[in-house]
């Protein structure tokens, strides 16, 4: 097929769904597009810092942190592909072939699907940790990387289904308004999958909170039975339960607030007839909100953990120090480095191993 026929095909679909005039008017970057690109740069930067923190900190080479690292990788990819999506949108849309168009939109689906699946994997890992009351050892590393590979494989298949044939090129009446070359049944399928994952994440975190509260009460009861004072134990247990509840509420609230509007819009896209729902032409704002979840994830899953927060800030300071101009006189730093290493050597190396498993789960939450 000739290049003009390719562009005519895309223009034909956009014209049928009512998006042709709107995209033709979008010549050049608008102010909101520039803001979105700046946000994407922030997403890329913070997720690079998370990955660097996990890579350079040996005690984070554990299954839970591998899942958090995978989440950071998928969020980083979301920032990259959304930037590319913005730059290739507007009038540039009609310069693309259908295959290029499918890759432009499919890459967004892959990145966002990988992010959602990673959130589910983290919830499953935390739930298993609570059930077994121990953090998984390094012997399960193969299982972890197998699960991570499965996450990316499923995300790639899900995003690649339209280019494999599940599209509306030969049935224009079934075309989506938000994504004019996508079949409405594919949109419905993806929305259903993501909605099921959302419900699964909510159920898992509710179970985690219930398990923590139950075991905290049992621990308090044992201390009372042994004749110890219950006031301090009750207070500490309540504080831990409240801290976990806050984390769970933050995780679920951000996830639902960022993703639910896009799910509702896509369901509306499936239900509405062509040219009947004007809100469908504002889909970029709903997608931007979903991408914003990729900016929130590092803050939630990294900075709510004391250990991760300290390591993250240390990495950030190291990175900023690399860009500072070095002084010619470095003599005093030798003494400072000696005193710091002496102080570090005097600390207890096995202090972290002495902490209880429940506390580890709390800090990772």
CATH topology: Rhopdopsin 7-helix transmembrane proteins
Please, what is the CATH homologous superfamily? Rhodopsin 7-helix transmembrane proteins
> How widely separated are the two ends?
54 Å
Rg estimate, integer Å: 25 Å
- Summarize the biggest pleated sheet: none
**Quantity of strands, as a count:** 0
Instruction: Tell me the β content.
Output: under 5%
Shape: globular
Percent helix range: over 70%
Description:
This protein is mostly helical and 365 residues long. It has one domain (2-323): Rhopdopsin 7-helix transmembrane proteins, CATH 1.20.1070.10. The protein contains twelve helices and no strands.
List keywords for this structure.
365 residues; mainly alpha; Rhopdopsin 7-helix transmembrane proteins; 12 helices; disordered C terminus; GPCR_Rhodpsn; Sphingosine 1-phosphate receptor 1; cell membrane; G-protein coupled receptor
Map the helices and strands.
Layout (H helix, E strand, L loop, with lengths): L2 H15 L2 H6 L5 H26 L6 H25 L10 H35 L8 H24 L19 H42 L4 H42 L11 H19 L4 H17 L8 H15 L11 H8 L1
Helix pairs in contact: 3-4, 3-9, 3-10, 4-5, 4-6, 4-9, 5-6, 5-7, 7-8, 8-9
Give me a quick take on this structure:
This protein is mainly α. It has helices at residues 3-17, 20-25, 31-56, 63-87, 98-132, 141-164, 184-225, 230-271, 283-301, 306-322, 331-345, 357-364. It has one domain (2-323): Up-down Bundle (Rhopdopsin 7-helix transmembrane proteins).
């Amino acid at each position: 097929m000739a290049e003009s026929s390719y562009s005519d095909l895309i223009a034909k679909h956009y014209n049928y769904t009512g998006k042709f005039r709107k995209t033709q008017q979008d010549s050049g970057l608008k102010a909101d597009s520039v803001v979105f690109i700046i946000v994407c740069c922030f997403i890329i930067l913070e997720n690079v810092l998370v990955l660097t923190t996990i890579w350079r900190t040996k005690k984070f080479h554990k299954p839970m942190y591998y899942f958090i690292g995978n989440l950071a990788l998928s969020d980083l990819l979301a920032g990259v592909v959304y930037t590319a999506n913005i730059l290739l949108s507007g009038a540039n849309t009609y310069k693309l072939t259908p295959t290029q168009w499918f890759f432009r939109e499919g890459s967004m689906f892959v990145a966002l699907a990988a992010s959602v699946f990673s959130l589910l994997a983290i919830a499953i890992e935390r739930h298993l940790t609570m059930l077994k009351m121990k953090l998984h050892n390094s012997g399960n590393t193969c299982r972890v990387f197998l699960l991570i590979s499965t996450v990316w494989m499923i995300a790639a298949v899900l995003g690649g289904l339209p280019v494999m044939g599940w599209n509306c090129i030969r049935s224009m009446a079934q075309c989506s308004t938000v994504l004019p070359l996508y079949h409405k049944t594919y949109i419905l399928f993806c929305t259903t999958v993501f909605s099921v994952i959302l419900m699964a994440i909510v159920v898992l975190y509710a179970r985690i909170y219930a398990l923590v509260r139950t075991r905290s009460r049992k621990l308090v009861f044992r201390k009372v039975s042994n004749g110890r004072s219950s006031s301090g134990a009750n207070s500490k247990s309540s504080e831990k339960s409240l801290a976990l509840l806050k984390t769970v509420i933050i995780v679920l609230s951000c996830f639902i607030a960022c993703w639910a509007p896009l799910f509702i819009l896509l369901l509306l896209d499936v239900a509405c007839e062509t040219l009947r729902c004007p809100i469908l032409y504002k889909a970029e704002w709903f997608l931007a909100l979903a991408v914003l979840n990729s900016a929130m994830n590092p803050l939630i899953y990294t900075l709510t953990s004391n250990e991760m927060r300290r390591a993250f800030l240390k990495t950030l300071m190291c990175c900023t120090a690399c860009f500072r101009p070095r002084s010619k006189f470095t003599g005093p730093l030798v003494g400072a480095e000696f005193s710091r290493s002496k102080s570090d050597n005097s600390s207890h190396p096995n202090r972290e191993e002495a902490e209880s498993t429940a506390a580890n789960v709390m800090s990772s939450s």
